[in-house]
Amino acid sequence: MSQISLTFPDGNIRHFDAGVTPAQVAQAIAPSLAKAAISAMVDGQHWDLQWPIHSDARISINTMKDDVPALELIRHDLAHIMARAVQEIWPDVKVTIGPVRDYGWFYDFDRAEPFTPDDLGQIEAKMKQIINARDPVRTEIWSRADALAYYEQRGEPYKVELVHKIPEDQDLRMYWHGDWQDLCRGPHFQHTGQVPADAFKLTHVAGAYWLGDSTRPMLQRIYGVAFKNRDDLKAHMTMLEEAAKRDHRKLGREMNLFHMQEEAPGQVFWHPNGWTIYTTLQDYMRRQQRRDGYVEVNTPQVVNRKLWEASGHWENYRENMFIVEVDEEGAREKVVNALKPMNCPCHVQIFNVGLKSYRDLPIRMAEFGSCARYEPSGALHGIMRVRGFTQDDAHIFCTLDQVESESKKFIEFLAKIYSDLGFDKWRVKLSTRPEKRVGSDEIWDKMEAALANACMAAGYPYELFPGEGAFYAPKLEFVLTDAIGRDWQCGTLQLDPNLPERLDASYIGEDGAKHRPFMLHRACLGSFERFIGILIENHAGKLPFWLAPRQVVVASIVSDADPFVEEVVTALTLAGVRAEADMRNEKINYKVREHSVGKVPVILAIGMKEVEERTVSVRRLGETRTETMTLDAIVAELSAAALPPDLR
Ligand SMILES: [Zn+2]
Ligand SMILES: [Zn+2]
To answer: How far, rounded to the nearest angstrom, does the alpha carbon of residue 608 sit from its chain's CA centroid?
Structure first.
């Protein structure tokens, strides 16, 4: 038998018979490793312990200490174990597919009766039995004929359909968890007992069409989450509860910020409170942009398809565009326009007016650009995922040599803004050249180096995502972590030599000849709508004072205090604080409760004692104690707190 050499992470090379499995390799190193092993990495590929290795390779053995493969296997094995449990309890249920997803997995079943919460409990208990049985996991390659015969005989029409979908030249791999079998690419654990029995939970059931096709049967999708240990599961469940409490749709109602309605799906009706947050944030962003050398522009909403054809959107993005047809006078056929889904092509139109010289570059052109994109109704989510939104968009026109310094400048700009808005944890992702791309390797080297150097120079090391860039250039993405540990991608910096080319943008270089500028598409917040949703959830509605839409309510305890209440409101308003009076004939506790639900950060209660002493009784949101302050002192304190962080 021929020999192969396997290289270990420490550089050691060992020789084995070709066809050796990682399980045997682990055994050869140490029986304890063989026992702890869960899978292997073979030349960077996640490899089942049972799969043979036929040629020289780099190898490492994974154990539960290796988070990424461990979590993938836990979730993937649980999908199989759940399907087995369901069929053991209800043998008539048909199985389909069950992939791993964020934090867990789901599996789609065809069953006439809906799964109830009690059913989920029963399935969980059965899953634990299967785990505790430590049933071996086996795998085999089957012929198509055998697989079809097996599934037809067992009455599994969905599996038969799946087998037919797999290309003729591909192996069909089968996996057994005990006696239960599923068609699967793997890899999997050695035995069911490697799944932690106390670190998973079935969370909910939802309907899902077979293959996502609304003309096919509606299936029941059971979702589960799983982790390496009970503490991680507990932390996740707490996070979900916390997320539900912070849901911006719920807080949006309680704080009277906005609403949505059927006649305008995915578009926001901003109420005065919500619009106050929006404009406060926009004013802040506008000041930052001015300071950083941006010019602000505004471009049309309804734009002829010719421009979208030239920009490439008509070809590549049309299904996401709202089309507007108009009977233009004198035109023989309808004129076809689209609502702008992006601002970039319009910004190039502004750049293209008048001759530009290298001395004009860089041009940083910003727009609070309102865009419309068609999103399927199922994808819409409050104000976080919408059809109508406004980006804090800008395009920087520059030379390739300026890309690095402009990128660095933008990263510093964004860092200050995130910090001002209360997000101190964020990271940068650098996506580099994909397999299918345009442009020479030399240009790609320069573009990638420019973005990478910019991150390092700004002091923010990047995570590398090889192959994830656009077909024309690399990009940076900025991911925020919120107060309950969720990640939100908000900022982007996309380098682009392509659109200036398509829309014929040029400048006169130092050499007197015409050159193409590069464009940097960049956004910091992403869209105002989504970012405000993130802000609301991050702060659980208790926004920083300067962003709080209703900053102070001055509440009377007795009606004789009303004139002083009005005086206090006026003093605060003149000092730049958003203050309102509550002189309703209600008990003070009732008023405090109501405004606390509305997340008003400060309530000033005024009775006759306060009137006589010209003081206020201060109650801050989330605190039960009150303190007495003089009118002058509270006005001074709150007017300072009302200043946006950049104006302090
Ligand atoms: Zn599988
Ligand atoms: Zn753009």
So the answer is: 52
- Does residue 1 have a pLDDT over 80? no
Rounded CA-CA distance 577/589 in Å is 23
Tokens representing 234 are 């507990």
List the shell of residues around ion ligand 2, using CB closer than 5 Å: 344, 521
Sheet bearing 137-142, strands edge to edge: 137-142, 172-177, 180-183
Residue (of 83, 89, 133) closest to 105 by Cα position: 83
Cα-Cα-Cα-Cα dihedral sign, residues 346, 347, 348, 350: positive
Give the β-pairing of 475-481 and 426-431: antiparallel
Q: How far apart are CA 58 and CA 576, in angstroms?
A: 66
Catalytic residue among 340, 409, 521, 550: 521
Q: Determine the length of the chain.
A: 648
Ligand whose nearest atom lies closest to the CA of 180: 1
Ligand in nearest proximity to the CA of 347: 2
pTM, to two decimals: 0.82
Neighbours of 109 (CB within 10 A): 22
480, 329 in Cβ contact below 8 A? no
pLDDT in tens, 170-197: 889 999 999 999 999 999 999 999 999 9
Side chain identity at residue 125, one-letter code: A
Q: Is 259 part of the annotated catalytic residue set? A: no
Q: For the chain, what is the total number of helices (H) and then of strands (E)?
A: 20, 33
How would you list the strands of the sheet with 13-17, edge to edge?
A: 13-17, 3-7, 57-62, 39-42, 45-47
Tokens 């104000």 label which residue? Answer: 383
Order the strands of the 615-620 sheet from edge to edge: 579-582, 552-556, 602-606, 615-620, 626-630
What pLDDT is recorded for position 529?
98
Q: Is 398 a catalytic residue?
A: no
Nearest-angstrom CA–CA distance, 497 and 503 = 11
State the DSSP string of 71-129.
HHHHHHHHHHHHHHHHHHH-TTPEE----EETTEEEEEEE-SSPPPHHHHHHHHHHHHH
User: Which pLDDT tens digit goes with each residue over 316-326?
Assistant: 999 999 999 99
Distance of alpha carbon 398 from alpha carbon 518, whole angstroms: 5
Give CA separation, 402 vs 137, 294, 316, 452, 477, in Å: 56, 15, 29, 14, 19
Which one of the listed residues 391, 402, 494, 551 is annotated catalytic?
391
Report the alpha-carbon distance of residue 350 to residue 295 in Å, rounded. 12
